UniProtKB/TrEMBL annotation:
Stated name of the protein: Uncharacterized protein
UniProt keyword Transmembrane, yes or no: yes
InterPro entries (UniProt xref): Xyl/GlcA_transferase
Main location per the UniProt record: membrane
Species classification: Eukaryota, Viridiplantae, Chlorophyta, core chlorophytes, Chlorophyceae
PANTHER family: GLYCOSYLTRANSFERASE-LIKE PROTEIN GNT13-RELATED, GLYCOSYLTRANSFERASE-RELATED
GO molecular function: glucuronosyltransferase activity; xylosyltransferase activity
Gene Ontology CC terms, in alphabetical order: membrane
Organism domain of life: Eukaryota
Membrane topology annotation: Single-pass type II membrane protein
Source organism: Volvox africanus
Signal sequence bounds: 1-28
Subcellular location: Membrane
Length: 453
């Protein structure tokens, strides 16, 4: 059995080496010299090491991302407004659908998680009865992981070629990252906010919006941004630190029928959407059934009757998607990994940085339903244990960590000392790539405690 497995691994390695010979650019950057410069700067100083669950949770060690591929669109941008997003390789079809509902520039950070065993335990020289912790440093990717990376490169290249060949859909820039974990448990630490920040770093327009890949964008937003002067209009709003909120909906049915309906809901008129909206109809407010306070401040009843933007107030746990400018948008806090609280803290920081919230009257988002991820199930189970059964979670429990991080962010905003945690390797890129816009330098105002109640 072991011999057969070894032979299979050797065959996989040979196939991988053959693929490199046939496609010498498979690990190279885009032909765009700026893209290659950016890739080199991001990877500068990278050292291969394993990410460990306990060290990440207990010691706040950073994710260790390697940028394996960068591809920039050669299509001219339809307008100067970019949506940026993040996803795993298996969700490329969802990204394609998003790319058909939004027809402007898009920046996507795509991710592959890899598991590799750490070095074996070794006896300490001076105390033979004690064992060292396994080393998290590794010399190279294992043969199976090399194959997985190469397969991901090929998938992303073919996907990008497909998008590039269609002049009617988005202009897509992509980065392909991987991270190496020492266990299946550690693999749950999906670096969601790292990926969002890197996708945002790649954006080549001033006006931008982070939209998760499972949210389809109404056709009305692309139509508006293509009109003369509309991008400049939103850029002018940035002087007042306005966040333009995009209301979010979801189909009332799950599964494949829900996904078909989500696409339809992104293409109808606002009046048609209103006729389809309601608990016993085709669409409802996003997360109305499970987490209404995440979007209720948007005021959906008022939205259907408005033809102009209107102001809403920040509320605790509000987590809408929004349009703003690069120079005033805070970074996503990379302490939040896996699932939970990552957008909530970002929106709370907008309030801390003196943003006001204005709802777009004619554009919206629609969630495409999908199965829960393993890490979302884990967080939900731990939250249920605490809230329903008063359980005491162990120190390395992810839900416990998320609540501690939220508490720390909240106290920082109340004291006026909050700063989102960022990846130092990413911030170092600004000193290496001269054409990047300067990173935001924001000063907040202490938030009243009552806001968080």
């Amino acid at each position: 059995m072991r011999r057969d497995r070894a032979l299979r691994l050797q065959l996989l390695l040979l196939l991988w080496l053959a693929a490199i010979d046939k496609n010498p650019q498979c690990s190279a950057a885009s032909d765009d010299p700026k893209a290659k410069e950016l890739m080199d700067a991001i990877n500068d100083g990278y050292q291969l090491r394993l990410t460990n669950w306990n060290k990440a949770i207990m010691n706040d060690t950073h994710s260790n991302l390697k940028l394996e591929r960068i591809l920039w669109s050669s299509k001219p941008p339809r307008f100067q407004f970019t949506i940026f997003t993040q996803l795993t390789v298996n969700r490329l079809p969802t990204l394609f659908n998003m790319c058909t509902t939004y027809t402007g520039p898009m920046s996507a950070a795509i991710f592959v998680s890899l598991v590799q065993q750490p070095a074996p335990y070794r006896l300490q020289e001076d105390q033979s009865s004690q064992l060292e912790e396994p080393s998290l440093a590794v010399e190279r990717l294992s043969s199976p992981n090399m194959v997985l990376v190469d397969e991901a490169v090929q998938q992303v290249q073919e996907f990008h070629d497909k998008v590039e060949s269609n002049p009617d859909i988005c202009q897509l820039d992509v980065m392909l990252f991987y991270e190496l974990y020492d266990s299946e448990q550690a693999r749950l630490l999906y670096p969601v906010n790292y990926l969002r920040n890197y996708a945002r770093l790649q954006v080549r327009t001033r006006l931008l919006a982070m939209i998760d890949v499972d949210m389809y964008v109404s056709r009305t937003l692309s139509e508006e941004m293509a009109q003369e002067g509309r991008v400049a209009h939103y850029e002018n709003l940035c002087a007042d630190r306005r966040a333009t909120i995009l209301p979010a909906f979801e189909p009332t049915r799950p599964g494949s029928k829900g996904r078909i309906m989500a696409m339809k809901l992104s293409k109808v008129s606002k009046s048609h959407l209103e006729s389809m909206h309601g608990r016993n109809k085709e669409a409802i407010q996003f997360k109305l059934r499970v987490f209404p306070r995440g979007h209720t401040p948007t005021n959906y009843v008022r939205w259907f009757s408005e033809s102009q933007t209107y102001k809403v107030s920040y509320k605790r746990f509000y987590e809408p998607w929004f349009i703003t400018c690069d120079e005033i948008m805070p970074w996503y806090d990379v302490s939040f990994r896996g699932y939970g609280m990552n957008k909530i803290v970002l929106i709370a920081s907008l309030n801390y940085y003196n943003y006001t919230f204005w709802v777009h009257p004619d554009a919206w988002l629609v969630h495409s339903p999908h199965l829960d991820t393993d890490v979302r199930k884990l967080v939900a189970r731990e939250a249920s244990d605490v809230n329903k059964h008063n359980a005491k979670l162990p120190p390395n429990a992810l839900y416990r960590k998320l609540t501690l991080l939220f508490g720390k962010a909240k106290r920082g905003m109340m004291r006026g000392t909050y700063e989102p945690r960022v990846d130092p390797r990413m911030m170092a890129v600004y000193n290496k790539v001269s054409w990047l816009r300067s990173p935001p330098k924001l000063v907040g105002t202490p938030t009243a405690e009552s806001v968080f109640i």
